[in-house]
Amino acid sequence: MPVYLEVVSPLENIFEDLKSLPPDRLEMAASYIRQLKPISQAEREAALARTFGCLSPEEADEMERVIEEGCEQINERAW
Prior knowledge:
By secondary structure, the protein is mainly alpha-helical. The chain has one domain (10-78). Helix content is 63%, strand content 0%. The protein is built from four helices and no strands. It has helices at 10-19, 23-36, 41-51, 57-71. 0% of the residues are buried.
């Protein structure tokens, strides 16, 4: 009796795995997959345009102060 092997693509395997996930895990998987997808220069520029100017001048000043206090320090003993 002959034995036949079915060749299944990685995409088909992933699809079957996704079908068995509960809704919350499926959303996590979808979010991860979206992160893997390369984005175009136009999409990057649109994302930047959406966030440009989202901080008030006071918030921007506070963020700059916190960065300067916490990030611009050199600890010579740490290296």
